[in-house]
Prior knowledge:
The protein has 408 residues and is of the alpha/beta class.
Amino acid sequence: MPFDEAAPFDVAAVRARYPALADGYAYLDGAAGTQVPESVIAAIADTYRRGIGNVGGAFPASQRAGGIVAECRRAVADLLGGHSDGIVLGPNMTTLTYRLAYALAAGWGAGDEIVLSRLDHDANVRPWVQVAARAGATVRWADVDVSTGELPAGQYDGLVSDRTRLVAVTAASNVLGTRPDVAGIAATARAAGALVYVDGVHATAHGPVDVVGLGADFYATSAYKWSGPHIGAVVADPALLDRVRPDKLASSPDEVPARFETGTAPFADLAGVVAAVEHLAALDPAATDTRRARLLTSMASVEAHELRLFAGLLAGLDAMPHVTTYGRAARRTATAYFTVAGHTPAEVAAHLAHRHRVNVWHGHNYAWELTEALGIRAAGSAVRAGLVHYNDAADVDRLLAGVAELAG
Ligand SMILES: Cc1ncc(COP(=O)(O)O)c(C=O)c1O
């Protein structure tokens, strides 16, 4: 059931599940990492409390660890619409992307090309630039329309050819919120036989995800952006993973997806990921049926809640003559990026934190190519205020009051 104005998102009930939100701060820094609900804290603590062993042993504590890994793969697969045998778990998206980049580039050489975007976080740019350079492959760039913040999908017709081995693109910009036409870009890439690597780290928190519908061969996400612990995951078709051979220990598992995972997993944190997915699935109490179905319903309600608040946030910022906002994409997440005349982004963030107890982020936020294209990186880039499902109208009002105070 989609979000219904008559039965608005019960943000007060949601906020009550987050102990950290009681500290009096407005947490508008969710794009850099969210708080975790009590259920996630409990799942992690309970894992240690019950006793935990390494995987593969004959005793119950070991078997619990194996069960947690399997359940974590199922939960992330439900969240993304993928297959649990295609969920690779790791410490974060950056580490996993480097790992996959090394493995995929092993087959590249001179004459091969990859296509990257200037909209992307550097974690979906630099690993590919570096492995392409080593392989002698060429990097081609998709550019952002800086007046709107859009990544025009039409340009990919001219960038992708039968030489293209991979297209890396974000499902949402972590600063402008722009949601490019990933499905259209992926269709162009796949028609040319290229793989598509989608950065879903920012996007996943803000609405339903369907990796098959997106046409993503790989989709990366990080649980700490959606109320979970610091764990990253990449989903891919298990049959595709089966064709990729990462460096690994002789003694470690050879099967997919474990072949891509190095060392011993943080089992308690993986239990926390499961609890985070359950938390997301329950955000809309009207959601019913399977966990996947409940996730789709709940995340649609989350998206509507965030965008409704965001309309007020953006209108408020745009009404202030001393504020410049960046990005006007038709489809975007509830993420504002702005500068304030006469104040550096660092000064704005410090003012908001110290005088208003409002947490925002400032700087390039690793949107390295984008902040350069916007012409703001050298001056400290901008301030980012982003909404997630636990933000409310009071958070928005406090941000706007704090920024208004900086006029003149
Ligand atoms: C869009 C996007 N991609 C990638 C990353 C990197 O994620 P991780 O910290 O899991 O390596 C981030 C982190 O902020 C991000 O926002």
